[in-house]
Specification:
The protein is mainly alpha-helical. It has one domain. A three-stranded antiparallel β-sheet has the order 1-2-3, with no helix packed on it. The chain is globular and about 50 Å long.
């Protein structure tokens, strides 16, 4: 699995799941424009968020439940109090299976995202691959010892092992 950070949507795995959720929802969740955001908000607030959450819970896919909620917040959708509690329980079940930074980003969002939603997309401050590389190159140019390549995580007999490319 390729990863360029430990935050939410900073790995190939997260982006694959984002694509699958977008397909399941039949909505544009990749860089949605204003018109797309309104469609997502209408669909998710109209019951699709709940329907997909129930489907993913039935499949025992806690990570997908968490990422779905994050996508909903990124699109300014309503994420109610009960839904937040479900996501928090999923996060607890993912302890040790999800990067701490990603878990803390979602926890913070669940605590600070407006209830009810104000319709404004939530910013997780998780830069994409290109922005991450640009930041690292700028840090290196400024004399900071920052890795330039992408970080690749491999799962071995002892667990997670990382190496920089």
């Amino acid at each position: 699995m390729g990863a360029w950070g430990e935050g939410i949507f900073q790995s190939d795995s997260d982006l694959d799941i984002k694509s699958e959720i977008s397909f399941d929802a039949q909505l544009q969740l990749w860089y949605p424009n204003e018109k797309d955001l309104l469609k997502v908000q209408k669909a998710f607030n109209g019951g699709l968020l709940q329907k997909l959450t129930v489907r993913y819970l039935a499949a025992r896919d806690a990570e997908r439940v968490v990422l779905l909620a994050a996508l909903a917040m990124q699109c300014g959708c309503e994420v109610g109090k009960e839904h937040r509690e479900v996501v928090k329980k999923c996060l607890e079940g993912l302890r040790g299976q999800m990067f701490d930074l990603k878990r803390s980003q979602v926890k913070k969002a669940l605590e600070t995202y407006p209830l009810p939603s104000d319709g404004k997309p939530y910013d997780f401050d998780s830069p994409g691959l290109i922005e991450t590389m640009e930041r690292r190159m700028a840090d290196r140019s400024a004399g900071q010892d920052a890795p330039v390549g992408m970080n690749v995580w491999e799962w071995g007999p002892e667990g997670k092992e990382g190496r920089d490319l």
